[in-house]
Amino acid sequence: MENNYRIIFRIEIDTFFDEQGNLSLQKMEHLVMVCTNMRNAGFQVLMVSSGAIMLGTAKMGLPQPPTDLITKQAIAAIGQTDLIRYYQMFFDSFDQIVAQVLITRDVLSIPVRNKNARMTLNKLLEKGIIPIINENDSVSTDDIILNDNYPLTLIVAQLVKPHAIIINSYKEGKFSLIVKNNPEIIDITEEDLFQLAVRIKSDAGIATEINFDCKTRKSLKPTLPGRYNSLAEVPMISGFPQVLTLS
Amino acid sequence: MVKVGTSTLSYPNGKLNFQRIDKLAGVLAGLQKKGKKIILVSSGAIAVGSGKLGLSSKPTDLAEKQALAAVGQADLMKVYQKLFESRNQLVAQVLLTRDIVTVSERRKNASNTLDALMQMDVIPLINENDTVATDEIVFGDNDTLSAYVASLVKADLLILMSDIDGLYSADPKVDPEATIIPLITELNGALEKTARGSNSNFGTGGMITKISAARVCREAGIPVSITNGAKPEILNEIIAGKPTGTLFYWTKKTVGTKIV
Question: Whole-angstrom Cα distance, residue B110 to residue B94?
């Protein structure tokens, strides 16, 4: 059953909130189903998910996320417990075991930390467990300041060398797909993702399947930092573009 | 500041002792309501992870342990959150590594987060971040971790709960005359020798790590209580000042001086 393909789902928690600012558990459950389905199809799946601050804000009844750093860190510590509890509740209902992994950016610069993080993630994937990864906000401030977990996703990509990154976009049923060494962001429907999951185990691999088979594929226009004209010019880390700002 | 070991939270087969955790949450939430600022350092992630994956014996390989810790920590937090929130007490998860001792930026961040949580009346639940901690930078046991955190937040008291009643004068398994030492005001070599002799087999700690924790707290002038976690209600007695187990209480004179 295993097809040796590794994919990272990068989740922006905003996706699960409706216009009134309420968390939609149905949407979250649906995404968990999509992830589990990819896992059941034989992929090794990781999740990089933000959301601790938004959930912490909701829990403390604050009208909006705090702006000062220290309160943000505290709110993140409160919200992370809720975030992981929701994920666990939904994954449990699909019989999928998950694990929480909190990392800081120094996993890349400190060799022993790097080795350990890789070892832990590989062991989890080997056991068929889905690691749910977030930045350890209580001791680190990098992502909180950036307010974006794509850099964290790239760090995880450096550690586990995935074949593709899937991003849940702001519209329901739509995903963005970045295939390794391909300077393109591909807009893909949920149906395509399921089709891909079914077909991928047979032969050629994700890149081939995407390039030749996904009829509905269309490239998104990423907003690029000033000095780049196309995504192809953006430096790649681990085969994935260094910047990602979807329009 | 309270630290509970795996042996307090789980049965010998690794399954969680829900009733005991429920009692613990009740006592701690009660203390918080009375105005005490509580921090809980909790072990148990690996045991819970093993239980969840149906492993019968404790893993020895490091990668396996770390993977189990990542699975178990999520479950453990779920249980704590449920039991604390049923008492209207909010909790937050804070995972730390040894670099809170050595890296000033990490120390500042950890200290800021903990202070802010306590100000919001939230109980921080602390554990070592096993997935990135390594042999080189590991605390290794939560006794030592809790002592450093106690120093960081300038705690008034550190309570170490495990499956023994206190520090004995000799190994109680060998010497039937052994009695609990109720009060210790200074650390010395003889004491550490006694601790080493009575090292028990549970968790990763034992008496020796409790003495290490006491040494860290001595530097900061923080009293340390060693007590049995079987009855979490005992926390109320300790905080009320009733003698239970072993208390390390530093006289001002000894604080910061060299141990001989």
Answer: 8
ipTM: 0.70
For chain A, what are the domain ranges? 6-220
Type of residue found at B104:
S
Collapsed DSSP state (helix, strand, coil) of residue A55? helix
C-alpha distances in angstroms, B11 versus A132, B2, B219? 28, 20, 35
Task: Kindly report each contact of residues B80-86 with a partner whose C-beta sits within 8 Å and lies 24 or more positions away, as own/partner.
Answer: B80/B21, B80/B25, B80/B40, B80/B42, B80/B125, B81/A81, B81/A82, B81/A85, B83/B21, B83/B22, B83/B25, B83/B26, B84/B25, B84/B28, B84/B29, B84/B123
Q: What is the pLDDT of residues A162-207, one digit of tens each?
A: 989 998 865 666 888 888 887 777 778 887 777 776 666 544 455 5
Instruction: Decide if domain A6-220 falls under CATH 3.30.300.30.
Output: no
Chain pair A-B, CB pairs under 8 angstroms: 136
Q: Tell me what pLDDT residue B188 has.
A: 82
**Contact call for residues A231 and A222 (beta carbons, < 8 A):** yes
Please list every residue in chain A whose beta carbon sits closer than 8 Å to the beta carbon of residue B62: 116, 119
Closest-CA residue of chain B to A141: B109
Check B77 against A136: CB less than 8 A apart.
no
Which residue in A218, A239, A217, A194 sits closest to A36, CA to CA?
A: A194
The answer to whether B134 and B176 are in contact (CB under 8 A) is no
